[in-house]
Amino acid sequence: MMNQDKRLEVIMQTLEKNHTLTLQEIMKLTGASRDTVRRDIVKLSDSDLVKRNYGGISLPHTFRYVDDFLSRTDEMTAVKQVIAQAAAKLVQEQQQLFLDVSTTINCIPAYLPKIEQGLVLTNSLDIADQLLRKTELSVRLIGGVYQQKRRGTNDSNALRDLLSYRSEITFISAVGLTTDGVYYAFEDDVAFKQQLADQSQQVVLVIDHTRIGMRHNFRALGLEKLDYLVTDQSLPDELARQLDDAKVRVIVTDKAKK
């Protein structure tokens, strides 16, 4: 049985590699009970060595990276498709849409209703390609420098181009959602997502359950900026309560309810 100093050392070494750890992962890692692990977390948090979040801990004040777009495309494909299908049902005839760069939003074009007229704005090469091949919709690709790893753009040129448009419904994703708001990995996401939210009548956040309770490098939006959340599993009680207070309508996919 490890003593506390040894447990804390093991926890921090693993956290440096994985960036986040759940309570269950720490229990398995150290062989300690839930109550003991909670005391260890409190000690680390009080020493400002970790940041507590829903269900676990993460490193504080460190820049964390996300894998590039193509490497994430094949992860949890079935879940992303179910979420995308539910999100696409929110689209109505002749609405002007914005579809942001995201591996989950990348699944939405396949489930859009058969609409003959309408304009879709996007900053995603892959989404634009799908829309042109599979729908009759007009497509406007936002200008800017397109990055290979992200398969899209949200640089300053894209932000300026975005100012010319308004959307009736905007679909965004995120790397984290907590009671504090919506989080992203890159600083240029902040201004871009804020502008998207300001220029859209409705903002729909689509994320899978692995992003719930996760903080990341940059907070871009408060919960009050969202109109819908579409996800695949039920939410923690406190997050659900705060979303309800912010008048965010939550859609949990049918597959997740079974």
UniProtKB/TrEMBL annotation:
Alphabetical keyword list? DNA-binding, Transcription, Transcription regulation
This chain's protein is named Transcription regulator
The family database entries (InterPro entries) matched by this protein are listed as:
Carb_Metab_HTH_regulators, DeoR-like_C, DeoR_HTH, NagB/RpiA_transferase-like, Tscrpt_reg_HTH_DeoR_CS, WH-like_DNA-bd_sf, WH_DNA-bd_sf
- PROSITE patterns (alphabetical): HTH_DEOR_1, HTH_DEOR_2
Keyword Transcription regulation set for record: yes
User: Per the UniProt record, which residue ranges are transmembrane?
Assistant: none
Q: Please give the Gene Ontology molecular function terms for this protein.
A: DNA binding; DNA-binding transcription factor activity
Note whether Transmembrane helix occurs among the keywords: no
